[in-house]
Design a protein that fits this description.
This protein has helices at 2-19, 23-34, 41-52, 96-110, 112-117, 136-147, 156-159, 167-179, 204-218, 238-243, 255-269, 276-283, 289-306, 310-315, 325-337, 343-350, 354-367; strands at residues 80-83, 125-129, 151-154, 184-187, 225-230, 246-249. The chain is an alpha/beta fold. It folds into 3 domains: 2-52, no CATH class; 80-249, P-loop containing nucleotide triphosphate hydrolases (Rossmann fold), CATH 3.40.50; 255-367, no CATH class. It has a 6-stranded mixed sheet. It is elongated, with a radius of gyration of 27 Å. The protein starts with a helix and ends with a helix. The relative contact order is 0.09.
Length: 369
């Protein structure tokens, strides 16, 4: 009798969720049922197979059921930007730890059946932190591309309604919409809507947004992937931190990361300038990927407009006053050893004495470096 009551309760709850019209919630509930201890093994396997082969966005069962993108009631602006087929103009270069985490997120969803059979679910919510320009948005785009899913990006300028009281409903509308789709959702600049609730400078409505977000994160289905990104992790409400299953910290790239990034960039836009990779990988340490790409693009534009070689403008990126003495020596030696400058020119660029450059070149030759 107790088992029959349990089955009846499951059936009633499943019907209630199904009638709400949120397919993702139905899938989430079935995931839980499928992994329940004591469930008939044949039924468990059948549910797992059904979930693994559930209708996709493009299947006939879902055609004609697509909802319109959510819009702000007042401005009529669309609240989401959708990249149906995410495109990366250059492959991201991350530390081994960051790349390993991103690859695992993809692997989890590509092997969903194995996780479900083991009574596990894939990661639902991820928080990307780090300074601007280090590849957080690019990372979300990479994950979506690898999964073959559209990337939906929350447009915070549209969500933050001019009628502030409507902002909470805008946010809820966007998240409910994303839950109903097979997609990767990116909440960019999360700190704009998830600030600490003890911040006395924030008005009540913005604090209520945090509560809305917490409720939505708690309710996020395992069949979807939500990625949030922030440049100001210190501004986030502690309760928001706790709701994310996987934090990922993106730091400024080191010399090795810059070298790999410049190698890929020059291969694409200026293959004949590849000798500059070694020099710039030292001189641009401390810059973000976006800063580096912007500097290279500006140098290329100047070379085209003013008619001088690209070498001339790349050498201007190697400024002596931004580096330590040891860094300047290393840059000068690389300039000469790579045939990009004479000892005199390397001295003019870096301020390193020619005798010092000669001595280091001799030491490198003796050591076989």
């Amino acid at each position: 009798m107790a088992e029959n009551d349990k089955i009846e309760n499951d059936f009633v709850h499943l019907a209630r969720v199904a009638l709400s019209g949120r397919a993702q919630d139905v899938q989430t509930y079935l995931h839980r049922v499928a992994k329940r201890r004591g469930l008939n093994r044949e039924l468990s396997i059948a549910l797992v197979d059904l979930l693994r082969n559930n209708p996709t966005r493009s299947s006939p069962l879902r055609k004609g059921m697509e909802k319109a993108l959510p819009t702000d009631t007042d401005s009529r602006f669309q609240l989401l930007r959708v990249e149906e087929t995410p495109f990366l103009h250059i492959e991201p270069v991350y530390t081994e730890k960051v790349q390993g985490t991103l690859s695992r997120l993809v692997e989890e969803r590509q092997n969903l059946g194995a996780l479900l059979e083991a009574g596990l679910e894939p990661t639902r919510t991820v928080l990307f932190t780090g300074p601007p320009g280090v590849g957080k948005t690019l990372g979300a785009r990479w994950v979506a591309r690898e999964l073959g899913l559209p990337l939906m990006i929350l447009d915070l300028s549209a969500v933050m309604s001019s009628y502030l009281g409507r902002t909470g409903s805008n946010l809820r509308h966007v998240l409910d919409y994303a839950k109903s789709k097979d997609c990767v959702l990116l909440l960019d600049e999360l700190d704009a809507i998830a600030k600490r609730r003890d911040d006395s400078g924030e008005i009540g409505e913005l604090k209520r947004l945090v509560t809305v977000l917490l409720q939505q994160l708690d309710d996020w289905p395992s069949s979807g992937l939500l990625i949030a990104a922030t440049n100001h992790a210190d501004l986030l409400d502690p309760a928001v931190w706790r709701r994310f299953e996987q934090p990922v910290d993106f730091s400024l790239p080191g010399e090795a990361g810059i070298r790999a990034f410049l190698g890929a960039l020059f291969d694409e836009v200026a293959p004949d300038m590849s000798a500059w990779v070694e020099i710039l990988s030292v001189s641009l340490v401390g810059r973000s990927y976006s800063d580096i790409e912007r500097e290279i693009t500006l140098a290329r534009r100047s070379a085209v407009l003013k008619g001088e070689g690209l070498d001339h403008y790349l050498s201007q990126l190697v400024t002596a006053d931004e580096h330590s003495k040891q860094e300047r020596i290393e840059i000068a030696v690389r300039l000469v050893s790579n045939g990009l400058a004479t000892q005199r020119k390397a001295h003019e660029i870096t301020g390193v004495a020619r005798d010092t450059i000669r001595a280091h070149l001799k030491n490198d030759a003796l050591s076989g470096g």
